[in-house]
Amino acid sequence: MKKRIFITATNTDIGKTYTTKLLLREYASRGLKVGVIKPVETGVVDGVYPDGDVLLALVKELNPALKDLSVSDIVPISYELPAAPFIASGGESFDTKIVLKAIEKLEAYCDVLLIEGAGGIYVPLDKELMILDLIKLTQATVLLVTHCSLGCINDTLLSKKVLEDAQIAHAITFNCKKSDSSFEKVSLPYFEAVNFPILKTSSDIDTLCDVLYNL
Ligand code: GTP
Ligand code: MG
């Protein structure tokens, strides 16, 4: 098995794809053959995969061995409705075998495989499975992307607790946006008081790559 890194987040729209792209570029710049998969994407309409298309274009540029892939190779399961897969699929059961097969196919061409989840850790894939179960199944190490808006303390600690309880090796990155100017004043003091490692997506991507690769 190659190095697998599962990128999840405290919620949807937090910056999983944004961070995944930065990680792909950084690992590729180190001479590693990179791959990427988004096992399930919702909100796919008229053949447009908002995440899949972007990730495919980038990974082809960074790893020419993947030039013949199509978007369904890196997004094996997709639905139109932009909702949790359980809802978007109309309640059908989630086929983990399709995902594992797609991962194995991609791994033949790469040293490190990034896996972007959907939404956050407790997003239901079907009635039984959640993203957490998919993480366990892939045996990947995890990068939790969190945000820097008010509420990030609670959101970060909740997701962290789930990963700890499941004994999943993980790192956390803060994807601060321009609008998050209050982070230093209203959230950072807590994290500093408890010596919480602050790795920012924008400025600490090289450290993150090291940490994740060695987890
Ligand atoms: P889903 O896969 O839909 O759950 O979302 P996501 O977690 O992958 O979020 P994504 O990376 O797509 O980021 C959401 C939006 O915020 C996108 O339009 C990004 O371009 C934008 N965005 C995310 N992070 C940053 C950032 O650090 N800076 C800026 N300028 N834009 C960002
Ligand atoms: Mg995304």
Written description of the protein model:
- There is one protein chain.
- This protein is of the alpha/beta class.
- The protein has ten helices and seven strands.
- The strands form two sheets. It has a five-stranded parallel β-sheet with strand order 2-5-1-6-7, sandwiched between helices. Strands 3-4 form a two-stranded parallel ribbon.
- Strand 6, helix 7 and strand 7 form a beta-alpha-beta unit.
- The chain starts with a strand and ends with a helix.
- The model has no long low-confidence stretch (mean pLDDT 97).
- It binds guanosine-5'-triphosphate and magnesium ion.
- Magnesium ion (MG) binds next to helix 1.
Instruction: Quote the beta fraction.
Output: 15-25%
Parts with pLDDT < 50 across at least 5 consecutive residues: none
How many structural domains does the protein architecture include? 1
Global structural class: alpha/beta
Task: Give Rg in angstroms.
Answer: 17 Å
Ligands bound, unique: guanosine-5'-triphosphate, magnesium ion
Q: Portion of residues in helices?
A: 40-55%
Write down the CATH topology.
Answer: Rossmann fold
Order of helices and strands: EHEEHHEHHEHEHEHHH
How is the biggest beta sheet arranged?
5 strands, parallel
Determine the CATH superfamily: P-loop containing nucleotide triphosphate hydrolases
Number of strands: 7
